[in-house]
Amino acid sequence: MKGLIDGILHRTQAEYLERLMPPRTGALASLERLAARDRVPIVDPEVGRFLEQTCLAANARRVLEVGTAIGYSTVHLARGVGEGGRVLSIDVDPQRQATARAYLAEERLEARVEFVLAPGLEAIPRIAGPLDLLFLDAIKEEYRGYLDLALPKLRIGGIVVCDNLLWSGQVAGEVLREDERSSTLALREFNPYFTNHPQLLAQVLSFGDGVGFAVKVRG
Ligand SMILES: C[S@@+](CC[C@H](N)C(=O)[O-])C[C@H]1O[C@@H](n2cnc3c(N)ncnc32)[C@H](O)[C@@H]1O
Fold first, then answer.
1. What is the distance between the alpha carbons of residues 200 and 219, in angstroms, rounded to a whole number?
2. pLDDT the model gives residue 11
3. What pLDDT, on a 0 to 100 scale, did the predictor assign at position 40?
4. What does pTM read for this prediction?
5. Hey, which residues does 154 pair with through a beta bridge?
6. Which residues line ligand 1 (CB under 6 A)?
7. CB atoms < 10 A from the CB of 134, how many?
8. What ranges do the domains of the chain cover?
9. Residue spans of alpha helices (H) in 107-208
10. CATH number of the domain at 2-216, please?
11. Residue 6, exposed/middle/buried by CB under 10 A (0-12, 13-18, 19+)?
């Protein structure tokens, strides 16, 4: 019974919070439509806004994103790093990155983004630090690998954000989609690794699809 009540309350609150979000305009609105039409997974609008806020609050100037897709989160990060800032954004899909490039140009943000077309685990070792913020949003089975490779390049006080750590409720609950069993099991292993990492002060925030948030506190 309590679970049911919690569930109903939760949905009511989620819908309320959604209504509070200012409507997106320009490239972000177009990207949300495109993602829905072509079923491209992108961060929730509140997560996009959170990325931009976090870059601004942390004065992040050099950001690494693993998983560009069509550039929805990249637009937020590029806004957040400000004039002269740099977002290095990795993806393996050339078509999606071409779309991202076009939308970044539409927002006059292309000078702030360097697109890297390669698998994350191959590309990260070639990326020079220091980084101010790391955003993980590609293959869930590889999150630990991305973190292990990128963390030495993150400055002390730098921030890690990871999307999808609750994976539609499957990480804490039952596997609902057989095609997401492997990613769900990987996230079940990743989450405690992340929240107990000796170099990080980390937790999982329960908004969007579950957002990992950490500050690097030790080298
Ligand atoms: C969830 S989407 C990223 C969404 C994007 N961050 C956003 O919110 O707008 C994940 C992306 O990871 C990319 N991807 C898949 N395998 C990858 C790999 N090995 N390295 C880097 N990116 C990869 C996919 O092509 C896909 O576009």
1. 9
2. 83
3. 98
4. 0.96
5. 131
6. 41-43, 66-67, 69, 72-73, 90-93, 96, 119-120, 137-139
7. 24
8. 2-216
9. 120-123, 143-150, 181-195
10. 3.40.50.150
11. exposed
51 neighbors 82 (Cβ within 8 angstroms): no
Atom 19 (ligand 1): residue with closest C-alpha? 119
Q: Are 103 and 75 in contact (CB under 8 A)?
A: yes
| Contact call for residues 35 and 41 (beta carbons, < 8 A) | yes
pLDDT in tens, the chain (219 residues): 343 455 566 888 888 998 999 999 999 999 999 999 999 999 999 999 999 999 999 999 999 999 999 999 999 999 999 999 999 999 999 999 999 999 999 999 999 999 999 999 999 999 999 999 999 999 999 999 999 999 999 999 999 999 999 999 999 999 999 999 999 999 999 999 999 999 999 999 999 999 999 999 999
**Helices marked H in the chain:** 2-20, 26-38, 45-57, 72-81, 94-106, 120-123, 143-150, 181-195
Joined tokens for residue 12: 């009511």
The residue to mutate among 73, 77, 89, 91, having the most atoms of ligand 1 within 8 angstroms of its beta carbon, is 91
Q: Counting atoms of ligand 1 from 1, which one is nearest the CA of 96? A: 27
Given the CA of residue 93, which atom of ligand 1 is nearest to it? 25
Q: Are strands 154-162 and 131-136 parallel, antiparallel or unpaired?
A: parallel
